[in-house]
Design brief:
Blueprint lengths: L4 H8 L3 H8 L7 H13 L6 H8 L4 E6 L5 H15 L4 E6 L4 H13 L4 E4 L9 H8 L4 E4 L9 E4 L2 H14 L5 E5 L5 H16 L9 E3 L5 H14 L5 E4 L2 H13 L9 E3 L16 E3 L2 H20 L9 E3 L3 E3 L10
Parallel strand pairs: 1-2, 1-3, 3-4, 4-5, 5-11, 6-7, 6-8, 8-9
Antiparallel strand pairs: 10-12
């Protein structure tokens, strides 16, 4: 026999609404009551009837995640956090990849809305330049959570690091290691995180009284070792006095280090290098790569937490909430590639 919420409520001597809220981890149910409900449903092997639930609540228990790149350590950490948190509420996660295409992102959001997903979690493609498709999500009353790559002009739930401050810290570290001529491999012109990291780099130079040379800021159109090597070759030929490099990704940093070493430059004595995202490759290359840790798993957990919070307010028929933003802490991981001054 398939148990219902009514059966559970009768067995525990509580209301059906309390059982439902306990299973959804609502904040207005006491921890003691939640524990009683969860213990009982585990004992009786209760499985929610999703079809009946949808007819009653119009919720599909399905969320869609759109990543700009699937072959990416940082996004994989975020995805792990999202899936882990979603599973606690018996939510399924549909994962799509835009491959950095604006057109594909628009198409995928349309498909997710057709599937009646309960929420959409999106990291914007680097080529996204218009946002009508995001407004369509809000018009459909579907919670939208932007993470990592956000659009400041779009009102939505946002989860990201402080990219400008993280870039400031990375550049500051190079300065504190004695670097005077610091270059930057930035991302494309459109993504907000690329803009913010570039601004953080510039702000650090200004703060410490070092000159900014726009010709020392190169665009890395691709997140690849090859692109990093190509830019490093151009940089070294045009500015041989360079003694520090901050890159927008770890792969670009690895490529740059490879080229510098081929040219006989010692890392970090001649050129100190720091990357961004702390990929798995960072501690494996020689010299080991300093980087910025973005805490992707924590970001994924926070994405789902804020989604459920928005869903709860919607279920309670409250006034539309002010869209929340969460800043995930980042930190420098200092390794051999930038460490000139040792304690």
């Amino acid at each position: 026999m398939n148990l219902t919420l009514k059966d559970i409520a009768q067995a525990l001597g509580i209301s059906i609404a309390t059982v439902s809220k306990a299973l959804k981890n609502y904040s207005d149910v006491s921890p003691k009551t939640k524990a009683r409900v969860l213990e009982y449903v585990t004992q009786v092997n209760f499985k929610p009837n999703f079809q009946a639930s949808y007819l009653r609540t119009q919720k599909t228990k399905l969320v869609g995640v759109i990543l700009p790149d699937i072959n990416h350590d940082f996004f994989n950490k975020i995805l792990k956090g999202i899936i882990t948190a979603a599973e606690t509420q018996d939510y399924n996660v549909l994962v799509l990849c835009s491959n950095e295409s604006f057109e594909k992102e628009v198409e995928q959001i349309h498909d997710l809305l057709q599937r009646k997903v309960d929420g959409i979690f999106l990291s914007i493609a680097k080529n996204t330049y218009r946002y009508e498709h995001l407004e369509a999500i809000k018009a459909a009353n579907v919670p939208l959570v932007l993470f990592d790559r956000i659009a400041k002009v779009v009102n939505s739930i946002r989860v990201a690091i402080d990219d400008q401050q993280a870039a400031f810290m990375a550049t500051e570290h190079l300065i504190q290691q004695g670097c005077k001529n610091i270059a930057h491999f930035r991302g494309d012109l459109i993504p907000q995180m690329s803009i913010d990291r570039f601004l953080g780099y510039k702000r650090a130079l200004e703060h410490y009284g070092l000159p900014f040379h726009k010709e020392w800021a190169f665009i890395c159109a691709e997140n690849s070792i090859e692109n990093g090597k190509m830019n490093a070759e151009i940089l070294l030929k045009s500015a041989p006095e360079i003694d520090g490099l901050f890159t927008i990704t770890d792969l670009a940093a690895v490529g740059a280090i490879s080229y510098f070493k081929e040219q006989g430059r010692r890392i970090p004595k001649d050129i100190a290098v720091i990357g961004f995202s702390n990929w798995a490759i960072a501690p494996l290359v020689t010299p080991t790569l300093s980087s910025v840790e973005q805490n992707g798993y924590l970001m994924g957990l926070k994405v789902v937490e804020l989604f459920f919070k928005a869903l709860e307010k919607s279920n309670e028929n409250e006034e539309p909430p002010i869209y929340e933003s969460a800043i995930i802490p980042s930190q420098l991981i200092i390794r051999d590639s930038s460490l000139r001054i040792k304690n």
